[in-house]
Design a protein that fits this description.
263 residues, alpha/beta, Rossmann fold, six-stranded mixed sheet, globular
């Protein structure tokens, strides 16, 4: 059985005024954790995380996997959306990840991820962890680790990267992103927030991180949960909170949620 992971972190978005701070740290943190758990880890950070490189890296891991293999994909960066052209989205939008070259090459759509994940061989286990806006507010959770100041959302407005002549009507752009990446495929998806919320880029103890990544790893290391479902329940002890009104989500079958973590 082979265990491989791809960890993507993008702080730098050339051509926009929407750079982030904690995404590269997120990717390095996930990579370190997965390495200790026996995974061979590939990282794509900032300029290395182009759209083509992301597609090639994800596709390469999936095409090279065989029955019994375990693949983990983590993404920290901006999320965005584009008008749906295939008619498969009830809200009329395709949700997307934002590569380093977003302004010139465009986003990586949930449709693209779905097509890549659909290529996996039978018996290959895939887990996707996304600390971006998929964009309820409940106020609870501990904030003792959170530094003072206002966190920044991990959502890339269309106006920041899409040519003006391609922008959808202003009324549609004004609404929150919806839908998430449930169409991406895989066995388990852990997401940073509801599809009516934003994920936050912030700082803990003087070090930039995504809120979801920080608390997910904290819950994993301190609580030592055995299954994805148990891990998710421990994460929800921290999020949402008053200053971080994001509600992490877990998607997957009942069986998949009870898989042993990173097995």
């Amino acid at each position: 059985m082979s265990k491989k992971a791809l960890c993507i972190g993008i702080n730098d978005y050339p051509g926009t005024a929407n750079d982030l701070s904690g995404c590269v740290n997120d990717a390095n943190d996930w990579a370190a954790e997965l390495t200790t758990r026996g995974f061979t880890v590939q990282k794509l950070l900032d300029a290395a995380a182009t759209r083509a490189a992301m597609m090639a890296a994800i596709g390469g891991l999936i095409d090279g996997a065989a029955k019994g293999d375990s693949l983990i994909f983590t993404y920290s960066g901006h999320g965005t959306w584009v008008p749906d052209k295939s008619g498969d989205e009830p809200d009329g939008r395709d949700e997307a990840l934002c590569p380093y070259d977003l302004s010139s090459k465009g986003p990586l759509l949930d449709d693209d991820l779905h097509a890549l994940f659909s290529r996996r061989a039978a018996g290959v286990r895939i887990v996707l962890i996304s600390d971006s806006c998929h964009s309820g507010s409940v106020t609870r959770g501990s904030e003792e680790d959170l530094d003072p100041g206002v966190p920044r959302i991990r959502f890339m407005p269309l106006e920041a990267w899409m040519p003006k002549d391609q922008l959808p009507p202003a009324g549609l752009r004004a609404a929150l992103p919806r839908g998430g990446f449930t169409r991406a495929g895989g066995d388990v998806l852990l997401a940073g927030c509801l599809d009516t919320e934003y994920s936050y880029d912030t700082s803990f103890n003087g070090r930039p991180n995504g809120a979801f990544t920080f608390y997910a790893l904290k819950a994993l290391r301190e609580g030592k949960p055995a299954t994805y479902e148990a891990w998710f329940n421990k994460i929800r002890a921290y999020l949402p909170s008053t200053r971080l009104p994001q509600s992490p989500q877990i998607f997957g079958s009942r069986t998949a949620r009870r898989f042993k973590i990173f097995q």
